[in-house]
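---------- Forwarded message ----------

FYI, see the DNA-binding protein record below. Original note from H. follows.
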Amino acid sequence: MGMIYLVRKKLFRSKEGMKQLYYAVQRTLQPRGGVTTEKLAQRMAHRKGMGEGDVQSVLVDLPKYIEEALREGESVTIRGLGSFNLAITSEGFEHPDDVMPGKVRVSRIYFKPDRSLVGRLRQNMDFFRYPLSKYFPHEILRPETLERERYIPQIRRKTKQRTPER
């Protein structure tokens, strides 16, 4: 399919005063969590001629091995995907002797995508604008936009039916 986007207004201060510009932002039209390990294993097994269980086993274990390497202070690079690096921090102290191991914590994990992955996505990505008339007041839209969007097929959000929790 491709990625559906929304248009959002952002305000900026400029020498002339406040300026508003509009930007594309991602609209997620998928169940929470995206593509699951199971679905990914199905796709990979089908394309590689492997057993789905074997692929799923590797996918399930991969985060454990990445975590293990990060705990050892190493970065992890998966060619074609990208690199994972751990960032640490601590409170600020007035003397270097006060920065003790118990005060250090993980601040975040950085993922840097492989250049080839980014390049492939940039070349082969299709984008579709979610109809502006669905979320912008009609008064601010151009008449030709409203007319054009009148004939766009309805985009429905796919969501799972939730059962009420008790």
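H. also flagged this: The two ends are 38 Å apart (CA to CA).
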